[in-house]
Amino acid sequence: MIQESEIGSQKSGFRSQRLESRSKKKSCILHVASCILLFAVFYGCAASDASRKDDADIHYKIGVVHLNEGNITAAMKELTNAVEKYHKDASFHNALGLAYFAKGMHEDAVKHMKEATRINPKFSDAHTNLAAVYLEKKEWDLAVAEANLALADIFYTTPEFAYFNMGRAFYEKADYAKAEESYKKAIESNPKYIVAYNNIGLTYMKMNRDKEAADMFELAVKNAPNYVDAHYRLGLVLINLKDKKGAFNAFQEVIKLAPDSEMARSAKGYIDLLK
C-alpha cells in the first residue's frame, strides 16, 4: 500500500518536472529570440557596411577618372569621400595617396599609402608608389625597402616599376653597379619600358662606359622618337665619343621637339660649340 505521504511526494515530484519543462521551454524561446535579434543586428550591420562600401566605390571610380585626367583637386575630393565612407579598402587609400603625391603633399601621400599596405601587406602597387614618394623625399633606403616589398609578391604583374624605383634609389646613392642591375631587371620584365633604357644610359655615363650609354640612348630614341631627354643625353655622350655629327643631330632633335625648353637652349649652346 502506498502511503499518503508517498502520494503527496509523487504528486509533488510530477509537478516539479512540469514546471521544469515549462522553464526549459521559456528558456529555449528566449534563446531563439536572442539569436534572431543578434542575427538581425549583425545582418543590419553587414547590410549597412555593404551599402557604405558600394557608395564609397562610386566616389573611388569617379576619383580615379579625375586622377587619370590630371584633375587632381577633383580627384582628391572624390577619393577623400570614398575613404571617409569606407576606410577599410586598401585601393581607396592608395589612390588618395597618389592624388596627394600629384599635389606635392608627400606626407599625406605616405600616410595613405602606408595605410593601404597595412590593410593589405601584399599590395605591391602601393609599395611601389610609396617607394616613388620616398624617392621624391630623398629617402633612398626607404625607397629600396618598399620596392623590395613590392617584388616579394611573385604574382606582381608590373615589377618593372619597382625595379625602376630601386634603380633610381641606388643611382642617387652612387651605387651604380646595383643601379645597373635594377634597371636591367626592369628591362627584362618589360622590354618596352623605355625610360629604363634612358636611365641605364645615365648610369653608364657615371661609370665612364660611354659607348654602352650611347647604345642605350639610341635604343630609347629608336623606340620613342619624341623622347627629348634621351636625345639630349645622346648628344652629350656622343660629344665624349668625338662623334660631332651624331651629337649635332641629337641636339637638333631636342630643339625641334621642345624649342622653348631649357634643354633646347642648352642644346643650341652645344651646337654653337660643335660648328
Can you tell me about this structure?
The protein has 275 residues and is mainly alpha-helical. Helices cover 82% and strands 0% of the residues. The longest helix has 65 residues, at 4-68. The protein starts with a helix and ends with a helix.
Task: Round the Cα radius of gyration to an integer and report it.
Answer: 34 Å
Number of helices: 13
The low-confidence runs, each spanning 5 or more residues with pLDDT under 50, are 1-30, 35-42
Q: Give the beta-strand count.
A: 0
> What class do helices, strands and sheet pairing give?
mainly alpha
Largest β-sheet summary? none
Bulk shape: elongated
The helical percent reads over 70%
Mean pLDDT: 87
Order of helices and strands: HHHHHHHHHHHHH
N-C termini distance: 139 Å
Q: What portion of residues belong to β-strands?
A: under 5%
Topology:
Elements: H1 4-68, H2 72-85, H3 90-102, H4 106-119, H5 124-136, H6 140-151, H7 159-172, H8 176-189, H9 194-206, H10 210-223, H11 228-240, H12 244-257, H13 262-274
Helix pairs in contact: 1-2, 1-3, 2-3, 3-4, 3-5, 4-5, 5-6, 5-7, 6-7, 7-8, 8-9, 9-10, 9-11, 10-11, 11-12, 12-13
